[in-house]
Amino acid sequence: MPLSGRTLRTDEWLSQYLSHPLEEMDRSRPRASDLDGLSLQLGLISPKQACWTVRRRAPTSRDGVRYVRVGTLQGLGFTVLHTPNPRNEFHVSVTYFPVWDDEVAARFEGAFMKPVWHADEEGGV
Amino acid sequence: MSESQIRIDVGTPPWAPAADARVVEEYDRHDFPLSGVLEQGGIRYLFKCLLGQMDRASIWAYVPITADEERAIEDLRGDAVLDAIDHLLTNRMLTMAGAGDLHVFFAARIDAGIEDQQQVIGRFLKRWDAYTDEQRSAVTSASASATQVLAGPRC
Asked: Is the distance from CB of A41 to CB of A58 less than 8 angstroms?
């Protein structure tokens, strides 16, 4: 049975895990046409924490994270829901209706602060 | 008696690896389901993305799961969920799939022993590399990418 999420406040921070330089992997839209959204994490978490959550391994210099507030995404038309799962109680789903097209992707991209990379924080691998 | 094994069709998403397979329990997700339970033909299968969760190439494992095994996972939270899944993928006949850009390219049965999961993945990659010449040309880049990921740091 799906776990229940809580209502998010507009001033809460969210983190998006980045696993490659942004020019190599577009993280501003769903990865396949049959996927309806992207996953973020509740709170301000480090690249190390984000990498463990998604990949369950130690981070490298290619692992990073970027931050945005719930209200910023909502103000741009995105739906932001706390959608915990058994493994990850901090999982957040971001969706957009009706179509997550190039213009929407640009809006999503522009909402985030500058990425933080593991290499910047700890010297990386 | 041997266990039933999931049927996997090339070209499908690894979390829905055939037209008649659907996710009935989701244990973990990042943009798409990373682990959970699939149902196909009335049989339930545990699945997990073993490698490449955020890469163009990814490797997945599937194994039949019993009601008792599902109940044992049901109340777990956090990393304990993945520990329990990994335990169920040990010393079993697995169906494994290699995907490129979230579409299955190749699937094979792998008899997983009690070895490290990285070694099971390594054996699967050898099978993938031994695929026919014609098909290999199509999967070379994805397999090379997976090999590169495999060579990265371990948990």
From this structure: no
Query: Helix (H, G, I), strand (E, B), or coil: what is residue B149?
Result: helix
Cβ atoms of residues B82 and A56 within 8 Å: yes
Q: Which residues of B touch A (CB under 8 A)?
A: 13, 26-32, 34-35, 53-56, 73, 76-79, 81-82, 101-102, 152-155
Strands B21-30 and B32-40: antiparallel
Of A35, A73, A59, A78, which is closest to residue A121 (Cα–Cα)? Answer: A59
Q: Do B79 and A87 touch (CB under 8 A)?
A: yes
Residue pair A14/A70 in contact by the 8 Å Cβ criterion:
yes
**pLDDT (tens digit per residue) in B109-137:** 999 988 889 999 999 999 988 875 556 55
Which residue's entry shows tokens 């990379």?
A117
| Count of C-beta atoms within a 10 Å radius of residue A90 | 17
The residue written with tokens 């999961």 in the block is B117
State how far the Cα of A10 lies from the Cα of A65, in Å rounded to an integer: 20
**Main-chain dihedrals φ then ψ at residue B138, nearest 5 degrees:** -80, -25
**pTM, two decimal places:** 0.89
Amino acid A38 reads: L
